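pasting for ref
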Amino acid sequence: MWATSQVCARAWHPSPTGEGRHLIRSIWLRVIGAGVAGIATVVVGLSDTVFWGQVDERGIAAGTAPFAITLVLGAAVSLVAYALVELVQTGRLESITRQFGTRTIVLIPIAIAINVVLGQTVGSALKLPLYLDSVGTILVGVLAGPIAGAATGLVSNLAWTFVLAGTPFGNPYVWAFAIVAAEIGLVAGLFGYAGVFRPRPQTSMPRLLGGVALAVVVFAALVKFSILPYYRDLCPSTSGLGQDPAGFCFELFVPSESVDPILVALAFVVVAIVAIALVALVLRLARDRELGVVLVLVAGAACGVLSALIATPIAALVFGGVTGSGTDVLVAAFQKAGSDLQDAVLQQSLISDPIDKALAFLLVFTLLGAVSRRLAARFPQGERAVGTVEG
């Protein structure tokens, strides 16, 4: 009996020595276990769910509530699985509990509000193939950690549809992309832990100029050759506004009569904020020779590619590629050019998402550079984000 109890005790609190025990202690075991448990729960829960059919008076399609419940349940099961593995490994739940301190709990609703306001404004009042609905999620992920970031993204999208339904800020489409929002928060948290958002001032001028030039060329090429051409002859207006003799068409704002006045006003605010952030970024580059900008751009683009691969089947199968945002025009353009629905949505996502996430990452990087280092360092992962601790 005594021997059995000793074996159980060693299994519950494994020794740090030994290759096998080191493998068991690896965080990847927690991640794999959580992923398998969560995916299995979602697959089983959605096996009989039908998303098509009539919509209610709020514009929410049938099947959304079961989907949302299943998604939350899957996230809960995933978190429980992660916690159980960590408990077996260490006897504690420190990696989870430390991410949800008082400051994080206060920051999460603020981040959700940022997501909704920016996302709804860009999607409804600005005619741009972008989203900007993950800035708050990225901020929480970088400062608090990947689990807190994932939770913020998940709750943000579900609240955006179900809590704000019937208001100017409600969106009947974003519920389905809650898993994508969670992935963004998770990836941002991992990049934050890796120190990607850490400032890197006073970089040698040749390295700085080379990095900036490469980033500018890549993103300018994406915009010029992959986005702007698809606005040709696609403007709904016949007045000729925004259309040059060559037939090129680009309108920043949707006609105001079709958009809630609150969102129209916010659209100008959003454009101003983005412009100010970009100017501040350029000034920071010139003053501090900040190479971190390039790393953040690359990290954001990588996150966007992963988001595109996850979001494409959701947009195509659940909504037929039409999600009520500025990206719909790109889907229509690719279909007009001969792509089928699945390919058109993927082409659109691989254009919009990398640029969108790179811009969102840059906005968060700029914000972190503007706030007090002492304030940022008080968050669970803030010391890595602001550079007081190097990962």
